[in-house]
């Protein structure tokens, strides 16, 4: 799988083919599924591809992919579009958003469509940025927003009435959702890079500071989770749980870390006294 993800974002000038997509899907399933029979490395079979739920005694079809009779034509059109040097002279990020929606709507495989689509989206973004190296993960951001992801897809892809089928699909809401999630992914990437830099600087500053193993453990936890956890600092109770020590020992450790310049005491006091990393 890792090899596949690396391959997806390499040779960015090389056109994709149907075989490329099939190879990516096959890489997701290196061993046959024991729970169900899947077509691996080939397009899906003749069975209808639907996302269905039941409400009371009624079956609700949330999404229906193109029938097998149209699949090849739809996939050919998508691949031709994706391989254009500059499709409709659109921005590369908008191109990536459209590519994602288009391929996931075609749903060309029995299984693994989401992962193949995210891989292709990574390739589109890499092509726009002209590099295979990125410090953010769109897939992780989509996973964090999984509920809204499926909701927006259902709204855009949802089975249409006969009147709606005569109209073009408006994908503005999808583009906006994609841009918001991508921006969030980039912000998280910047935060991770900042954490690595700050942690490195912190330990360079304290390379000669004598600390216990438990103090090292807590400091690394604070450094690794900066911006995500302990946003209001750490108090003696949280230190006690992290280091598995008594409340009295936790208080002494925190006081010592302040005296050694590792932590700084935040405004406030008493039993709720909190501390943060001193960079």
From TrEMBL:
Pfam families: Fic. Residues 16-180 form the Fido domain. Coiled coil: none annotated. PROSITE patterns: FIDO (PS51459). PANTHER family: FIC FAMILY PROTEIN (PTHR13504:SF33), FIDO DOMAIN-CONTAINING PROTEIN DDB_G0283145 (PTHR13504). This is Fic domain protein, PA0574 type. It comes from hydrothermal vent metagenome.
């Amino acid at each position: 799988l890792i090899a596949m993800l690396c391959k997806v974002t390499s040779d960015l000038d090389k056109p994709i083919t149907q075989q490329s997509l099939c190879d990516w899907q096959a890489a997701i399933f290196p061993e046959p599924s024991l729970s169900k029979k899947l077509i691996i490395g080939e397009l899906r079979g003749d069975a209808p591809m639907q996302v269905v739920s039941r409400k009371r005694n009624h079956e609700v079809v949330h999404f229906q992919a193109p029938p097998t009779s149209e699949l090849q034509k739809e996939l050919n059109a998508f691949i031709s579009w994706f391989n254009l040097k500059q499709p409709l002279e659109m921005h590369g990020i908008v191109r990536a958003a459209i590519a994602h929606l288009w391929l996931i709507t075609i749903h060309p495989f029995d299984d693994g469509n989401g992962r193949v689509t995210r891989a292709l989206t990574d390739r589109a973004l890499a092509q726009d940025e002209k590099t295979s190296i990125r410090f953010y993960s769109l897939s992780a951001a989509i996973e964090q927003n999984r509920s809204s992801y499926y909701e927006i897809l259902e709204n855009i892809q949802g089975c249409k009435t006969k009147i709606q089928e005569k109209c073009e699909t408006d994908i503005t809401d999808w583009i906006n959702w994609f841009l918001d999630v991508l921006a969030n992914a980039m912000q998280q990437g910047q935060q991770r890079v900042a954490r690595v830099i700050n942690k490195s600087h912190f330990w360079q500053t304290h390379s000669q500071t004598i600390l216990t193993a438990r103090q090292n453990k807590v400091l690394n936890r604070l450094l690794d989770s900066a911006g995500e956890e302990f946003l209001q600092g750490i108090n003696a109770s949280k230190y006690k749980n992290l280091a598995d020590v008594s409340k009295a020992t936790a208080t002494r450790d925190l006081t010592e870390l302040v005296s050694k310049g590792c932590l700084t005491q935040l405004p406030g006091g008493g039993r709720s006294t909190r501390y943060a990393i001193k960079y």
